[in-house]
């Protein structure tokens, strides 16, 4: 909706965004994705439905749907703290996610990760590499890279990036194994197929069902996950309440 784009500070119109998607498909790109954010202040359920239906009509074969979050050091966080805006309501966000979970599969897009939906053969190989702990290169201003547990990022200013190329790395970090294992479990759980128990144990030396025994039992008791001999996977309820799963299941391990 125009007022949603205005609130987000976007200069384009919904019509221009949809036209860009159609032009990309017409130009012959093999796969075209649309990123959508839901939960912007002032957005109604009908606005969100129109956004979903609009991109589906264009024929894209991949859609990402992200819930608006109140992040630190952003104008929205400042406004929420000062009582000028309300933080997105969890129940409203779940309703919007539910609408996407109904409309996208009906159009042939299958959910393969909490926020990502694709037609057969159109899953993002780059994202899957990231979610399964693979290495990746970062090219361009603000890009991130990962190699053998070392995470780095480039300077965010395009001018600085161009002026100092190829010395453009701004910083790096090497996370402790415990944090890397928790992160691997987090992203693995987000996948529709769940966290592969054997692969996790091979990389990190311990079955996740053993490492997070108490947390997993609690999550299973709440109907958020299902544990099988091969994997730990989200239930349909777990997909809707992923934020709760992340906080209750893995935060204790990450903090410890």
Topology-level CATH name of the largest domain: Transcription Regulator spoIIAA
Order of helices and strands: HHEHEHHEEHEEHEHEHHHEEHH
Regions with little confidence, pLDDT below 50 for 5+ residues: 252-256
What's the total helix number? 13
* Fraction of residues in H or I helices: 40-55%
Strand content: 15-25%
Rg, Å, rounded: 20 Å
- The general outline is globular
Largest sheet: 4 strands, mixed
Topology, number of strands = 10
User: What is the strand arrangement across the widest sheet?
Assistant: 1-2-4-3
> Can you name the CATH architecture of the largest domain?
2-Layer Sandwich
Overall structural class, as computed from helix and strand content, comes to alpha+beta
Tally of distinct domains: 3
- N→C terminal distance: 44 Å
Summarize model confidence as the mean pLDDT. 91
* CATH level 1 name of the largest domain: Alpha Beta
